[in-house]
Amino acid sequence: MENRKVTSEMLLQRQERKSFLYRIVTGDEKWIYFENPKRKKIVAFTCRSRFFNTKAKSRRQEDHVLCLWDQGGTAYYELLKSG
């Protein structure tokens, strides 16, 4: 009988502690590709009263993200430049 009581108390104490998953921190790395168009200003010609947009320069950029998270969400992240 005493053995059951000790085992039951031990199991109750184990439940009161945070679960095993709360103690785990994991991470991942990811390359992010995105387009960053830069437009020049609008040029206006008064004699024809037309507006011309200069062509947008599209530049593909790569950034590296390091992210660590746990049970509660994101714990840490860092943006690393390529190269």
Uncertain regions spanning at least 5 consecutive residues: 43-54
What is the topology, as strand order, of the major beta sheet?
Answer: 1-4-5
Tell me the total number of β-strands: 5
Mean pLDDT metric: 68
Beta-strand level of the residues, as a percent range? 35-45%
- Determine the structural class based on helices, strands and strand pairing: alpha+beta
Tell the overall outline: rod-shaped
Radius of gyration over all CA atoms, rounded: 29 Å
- Order of SSEs: HEEEEE
Fraction of residues in helix: 10-25%
Largest sheet: 3 strands, antiparallel
Helical region count?
1
Q: CA-to-CA gap between the ends?
A: 67 Å
Structure description:
By secondary structure, this protein is an alpha+beta fold. The protein contains 1 helix and 5 strands. The strands form 2 sheets. The protein has a 3-stranded antiparallel sheet, with no helix packed on it. β4 (60-70) and β5 form a beta hairpin. Mean pLDDT is 68; it is low at 43-54. It comes from Trichonephila clavata (Joro spider).
